[in-house]
Amino acid sequence: MIKVGIVGGTGYTGVELLRLLAQHPEVELTAITSRGEAGTPVADMFPSLRGRVALKFSDPKDAPLDRCDVVFFATPNGIAMQQAAALLAAGVRIVDLAADFRIKDVAVWEKWYGMTHAAPELVAEAVYGLPEVNRERIRGARLVANPGCYPTAAQLGFLPLIEAGCVDAGSLIADCKSGVSGAGRKAETHILFSEASDNFKAYGVPGHRHLPEIRQGLALASGKDVGLTFVPHLTPMIRGIHATLYARITREEDVQTLFEKRYAGEPFVDVLPPKSHPETRSVRASNTCRIAIHRPQGGDVLVVLSVIDNLVKGAAGQAVHNMNLMFGFGECVGLTQLPVLP
Amino acid sequence: MIKVGIVGGTGYTGVELLRLLAQHPEVELTAITSRGEAGTPVADMFPSLRGRVALKFSDPKDAPLDRCDVVFFATPNGIAMQQAAALLAAGVRIVDLAADFRIKDVAVWEKWYGMTHAAPELVAEAVYGLPEVNRERIRGARLVANPGCYPTAAQLGFLPLIEAGCVDAGSLIADCKSGVSGAGRKAETHILFSEASDNFKAYGVPGHRHLPEIRQGLALASGKDVGLTFVPHLTPMIRGIHATLYARITREEDVQTLFEKRYAGEPFVDVLPPKSHPETRSVRASNTCRIAIHRPQGGDVLVVLSVIDNLVKGAAGQAVHNMNLMFGFGECVGLTQLPVLP
Amino acid sequence: MIKVGIVGGTGYTGVELLRLLAQHPEVELTAITSRGEAGTPVADMFPSLRGRVALKFSDPKDAPLDRCDVVFFATPNGIAMQQAAALLAAGVRIVDLAADFRIKDVAVWEKWYGMTHAAPELVAEAVYGLPEVNRERIRGARLVANPGCYPTAAQLGFLPLIEAGCVDAGSLIADCKSGVSGAGRKAETHILFSEASDNFKAYGVPGHRHLPEIRQGLALASGKDVGLTFVPHLTPMIRGIHATLYARITREEDVQTLFEKRYAGEPFVDVLPPKSHPETRSVRASNTCRIAIHRPQGGDVLVVLSVIDNLVKGAAGQAVHNMNLMFGFGECVGLTQLPVLP
Amino acid sequence: MIKVGIVGGTGYTGVELLRLLAQHPEVELTAITSRGEAGTPVADMFPSLRGRVALKFSDPKDAPLDRCDVVFFATPNGIAMQQAAALLAAGVRIVDLAADFRIKDVAVWEKWYGMTHAAPELVAEAVYGLPEVNRERIRGARLVANPGCYPTAAQLGFLPLIEAGCVDAGSLIADCKSGVSGAGRKAETHILFSEASDNFKAYGVPGHRHLPEIRQGLALASGKDVGLTFVPHLTPMIRGIHATLYARITREEDVQTLFEKRYAGEPFVDVLPPKSHPETRSVRASNTCRIAIHRPQGGDVLVVLSVIDNLVKGAAGQAVHNMNLMFGFGECVGLTQLPVLP
């Protein structure tokens, strides 16, 4: 049993962490902080947790975070970078679900996130928490930067092709669709039910913060810069990301086998048979990424379809997976719930 | 470990049973039948089960159902009554998720279900599988009639009042709203996405089959016939039942305490604090029923709000609960998944 | 052609007024105010109006409202009562879509709305704008209080029974379901897509502001106080109200004929044939109220089903209907668009 | 006034035609056929039309189609080609909303649609009914092949670029998302509410019938074959198509101006200002196509966003537009309803 703290537990990532951690046999939920809700029982805000989570939100100042073995930051960008150094100094390990430590080039991070980085010295140490890429380094990490939701779906879909070097890495396209929970639990007009339902739109086409994150991951795999057009879309569903990925073939390759081999040992990546069309609901509430590969009309364009639950494999579930690696638990412990369908 | 069979596994009740049973530590899934899908791996039809359920659908003729310890019928009405006697004779216990054995008065059943009952001699033996009422009898039952979804939500909401005799049992009103999965996975026009979404309607107002079932349960609790108006509505959500129940007070009573005491030991009924409004999503994908009681404006009408997930507490989850009772497992084994929210 | 102004045009009621008025042949849209959006072209905020509405939002201080023939208030409660006297003095007629002038008993209004009424002297003059009740008085009115959405659906469903005196007016129940747009276009957490979709809940059971409004209307029709239990529910659809109304029969009456006669001449009330179940989408985006009457199982409870589009017949459409009456236009002018289905 | 007939009026395209034609001042609805529903009043099947459409469905054999001025085919593929010759011979003009006459190469058509063409001699005569391309030829046409929904959105988005020759026509990508009504009103499992809502998936990636139609249109504009990857997706909304189009720049061009000039006189194409993200709801229930153009990060890929209502501009509305052209009515007559938002 390890002691676990959560900073910022009132958003969707926070409540999803609570759902998963409350069912994790190796975890003792020790503290959850919220400035605005200090003193409120967690289960008053989220009645789905009634009878199962007895914790109250505590003020960040009073929370015994430094006595935890690991602290999850489920906060807006820019919070974890202010508190990480002190916690690490106290011997606490950290999984940051926000973007503070994802981008290795601090200047790039500051440009896209519009603020000065408060802990640039920790950026190099932080391990990008995509287990399918960095499994061994995560085991030993003090500070894990949990990937974004779009970057998880897009990288898992592109990586086998990029690593094999069989597509043009200069002209990749990622057309991605996200459920509305990806926008968080903030009271904003554009994600109201009456705005977002029975409606579909692209957003952030000129530039979205997940673009440099995906580009960095693919460049590392490729060994050189990649050219990527990334268009996210707001989709009238609660959970789910569907990445439709386009890449031009530069060398013939049995791509189905390529993907199957790449992910053969991965507990949370499922390569579907040829001609499959994965649905987002096939991974709803689970930590699985399902992938299918197509070559339409035998042409020179590959289409990869990659689906995840943005709150699980795209956030809280992957964070728990990282925790499992960091503490030597079985990788799937606490993450075996089957998808909820329908 | 017990051997478990499912008859009719291609509907929503069937796939939900699979989701729950595949995660149940005491269960070995042994057979699942489907005339139309014989030979198809279950996970081909429901990719959410890939890697976790290796079973194929088998033809009913070939399935080794008689070697099971328990068989669930997730079939349309009228199937279980034809096969129950043979299975019971073979020593197999049965949980029927359809309506064949729910109504004790065979003539009433035949009128509402429009067919002749094929096994009237088993109706008396069958135990109505509402554990909050029949726990002890379920433990010893060979044949359990799993309650309908509306009847579960409505009875749990009315029972404390009826048992206490503090409301007019002659003028009860149950205004119930169900998610569309309650209509099953049949290809029918009125439950198409483009018909049922962004839309709301009542149906079956002249008479719905769950009316006699609710009336029977309340009459048993009351000791006399009850007067009940029951109006079901089709609601644009996948899962969930919300029963809004109206009863006229005939004797002053602390109803909050009444409910809390009635359900004090129940693992799957959660009485909310006064002034609460339970949401269906607070029980999504879980076996819990949440209930709140109101007395608007201090008048003489009580309003009880009762929510369940129609596929879990209203079907597959309650069936697993019944199985747990029948085989002496802990009541909550395999049913501890937290609700999925959002 | 009359000159029309709108105060507060950034909410759903406002944009719906714009949609209807922009297509109205007798209307010249002259001014629309918004403190926060002054200077912004209306079509920049609502691209659906591009090319059809050239108006910009203007600051309330600068808007030429006093040169309008009629001004619609599509504002939060408490605004119209502050500005009505000056506009009336300038010869401008008013339709208030908020609640300021709906309740005749100022003390009751102040209790339910939690503020002191700023123009109690105008309350008596104001005409309650339900054309099916007050048609003649509306024609001559300077100040019309446009009914609430729930009150429109509930009153139209109950009125024939109450006027005929054939039901127990002391034990009425109105179980009402509203689309989320009824909660307005405010950025509030509980109406976010990820909170309100795939979910259903009651709210305001202890007391909702539309309760005294419905009660007032029915009491006027009845000639005495009525007993009403009113439970509103938030439904995962954008538009639509479905009122399920329960009344106990006290005198036998051919209720189908009663309703058909009551609404025989009404252009916007459609009494369906017996055994019908009106869907909210059958009136989507139109000014029609459709009603069906049931007597389940031949018992002593009548069930009336009444559906409207909350933004049209429940708000903007009824306001335009009132304007048509006030200015002697044909009642249906500008309101003939057919419902959008699917 | 012209006499109008509809063959196959029980699907979504049919009821949408009825909605538009019932409000068209130059149209007398004369006949609507349905084999299965002969004798049923149209308004019994679609209560949204009650009081406005008095027509009954008639058996195809008895319907006075040959006395109509124009007949719309809102039928499955393969019906219009069997009946067109006889109607044309009787002097009736035809708008086919199905695919029978869209593809000029009969062999290609037969391969994609899996049947022998019954009227190959009419294929050459048929005019492809995209008014933005073929306006003048439509005016004189006897037989108009109304474009598919995806092809309308995709072609309008690509055409200015292809006509200008400023992008690589060999590597176009159309990532398209459709509301579920695009799949029709057939009782099929995969479009049930509980399957399609809160879910997202691609389909037909190996090859969709609209691929050759889009390719044909772009090839005509380009003067040579084009390379196109087309991926359609099923989106949990009722109406709407969102095409996200990718093209590689081969020659610098002021694309914003290019689009604005190309569609300057078009009543139903709206080019949005730079940096816009059109929403499908901004055209809901209207005949408008809204388009925005992006060049993310100043790279060499253009992203065009094109939205339509699949049932209006993608089907029935465009058909009425074509009728207006064929009979010399104003182009916008009967098509001026504003989009319904929210």
Provide the β-strand percentage band of chain A: 15-25%
Q: In terms of structural class, how would the helical and strand content of chain A be classed?
A: alpha/beta
Indicate the low-confidence ranges of chain A by residue numbers. none
Quaternary state of the chains: homotetramer
Distance between the termini of chain A: 34 Å
Gyration radius from CA atoms of chain A, angstroms: 19 Å
Mean pLDDT of chain A: 97
Number of strands of chain A: 14
| CATH fold label of the largest domain in chain A | Dihydrodipicolinate Reductase, domain 2
CATH H level, superfamily name of the largest domain in chain A: Dihydrodipicolinate Reductase, domain 2
> Briefly, what CATH class of the largest domain in chain A?
Alpha Beta
Description:
4 copies of one chain form a homotetramer. The first copy, chain A, has 342 residues and is of the alpha/beta class. The first copy, chain A, has 2 domains: 2-125, Rossmann fold (3-Layer(aba) Sandwich), CATH 3.40.50; 149-310, Dihydrodipicolinate Reductase, domain 2, CATH 3.30.360. Chain A has 11 helices and 14 strands. The first copy, chain A, has helices at residues 12-22, 42-45, 80-89, 106-113, 120-123, 131-139, 149-164, 193-196, 210-222, 255-262, 312-326, and strands at residues 2-7, 27-33, 57-58, 70-73, 93-96, 127-128, 143-145, 172-179, 201-202, 228-235, 241-248, 269-271, 289-294, 301-308. The first copy, chain A, has a 7-stranded parallel sheet with strand order 3-2-1-4-5-7-6, with helices on both faces. In chain A, strands 9-10-8-11-14-13-12 form a 7-stranded mixed sheet. In chain A, helix 2 links the parallel strand 2 and strand 3 (57-58). The radius of gyration of chain A is 19 Å and the shape is globular. Chains in contact: A-B, A-C, A-D, B-C, B-D, C-D. At the A-D interface, strand 8, strand 9, strand 10, strand 11 and strand 14 of A face strand 8, strand 9, strand 10, strand 11 and strand 14 of D.
